[in-house]
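Key idea: predict the complex, not the pieces.
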Amino acid sequence: MSGEATRTPAEGAVESPRLSHGVRAAAPLAVGPLLFGASFGLLAGEAGMSGAAAVVMSATTFAGSAQFAAAGTLEAGGSAVAAIVAASLLNARYVPMSVAVARLFRGSAARRFVEAQLIVDESWAISGRSGRFERPMLIGAGLLLYVCWIAGTAVGLVFGDSLADPDAIGLDAAFPALFLGLLWPYVQTERGRIAAVLGALVTFVLIPVAPPGVPIVAAAFVCLLGLRR
Amino acid sequence: MNEGWVVVVAVGLATLCCKAAGPVLLGRRALPPRALAVVELVAPVMLASLVVVQAVGGDRELVIDWTRLAGLGAAALALARGASLLPVMVLAAAVAALLRLAF
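Result:
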C-alpha cells in the first residue's frame, strides 16, 4: 500500500515505521467507519437512543459489530440485558486479540489502558500486515479509524439515510477481502495454514447454532494448538 | 437513566476491559515459549474467523449473499496472483456492487 512507497529503505531499516505510516495505511479504509458509523447513528436513533448516547457509545465501545448488535436488539424491542449480552459476546474476541499485541504497549498501566482502546478489528489486523505486529501501525491506524467512526456516527445522527448505503458500494465484500489479504502472510507456514483453516471451520460450524460473537471466541481456542510442538 | 444509556455504559465498560486485558495485565512481560507459541497463532486464527463471520455470518444463521461471495472470490484470486491490499479491496467492492446493479 501507499505507506511503503514513500519510505526510503534506509529509513525503514534503522527505525520502525512512524505513526504517520499507520495513518496512511488506514486511510483507504476510512470510508468504512465513516459509512458504517453513519449507519450506526441512524440505527441508534431508530432504537430510541439519544444522539449523545450514540456518540458516547462510539467513543467508548468503538467496535462496529457490537454497537450494531446493541442498537439492533433495542430497536427490535429486546431488553437492555439482551442488548448488553449480545454486544459483550461480540467484543469478547478483543481479549485474545489484545493479548496478541500486548507487548506493543508501554508506560504506566493507565497509559496502556487508554492506548489499548485503539484496538479495533481493522487497526489490529493492519498493524500485523508485515507478518508481525507493529506499534506505530496500530496506534496510527487506530487513531484515524477512531476519529472517522465518531464523525460517521454524528453524520448519521444528523443526516440519516441520505448517505450512500455501504452495501450498495460493496463495502460488505471489501472488508472480508481486507481481512483475507491480511491473513495471507500468516498462511505461508504450515502451522499458520492449519490454524487458519481450523479457526475458519470452527467459526463456520458454530454460526448457525451459537449467538453472534460466540463462534469467534470459540475459534480462539484453536490457538491452543500452539502447545503442541 | 433510560435503557439506551444503561446499554451504552455497560457495553462500554465491558469493551474497555476486553481491549485492555492484554496490554494492562501482560504488558511487555516476556512470555514463556509455550505461551508465545499459542499467542503466535492468534493472528491467523482470528483473521480467518473474521473473514468467515463477515462473509456468511448472521444471527444464528448462515447468510449466503452470492454477490458478496463473488466479490470475496475475486479478491482471493487477485491475492493468489500477488495483488496488494488496496486493489484487492476495491476489486471485491466493485464486483459485489456491479453484480447488485446488474441483477
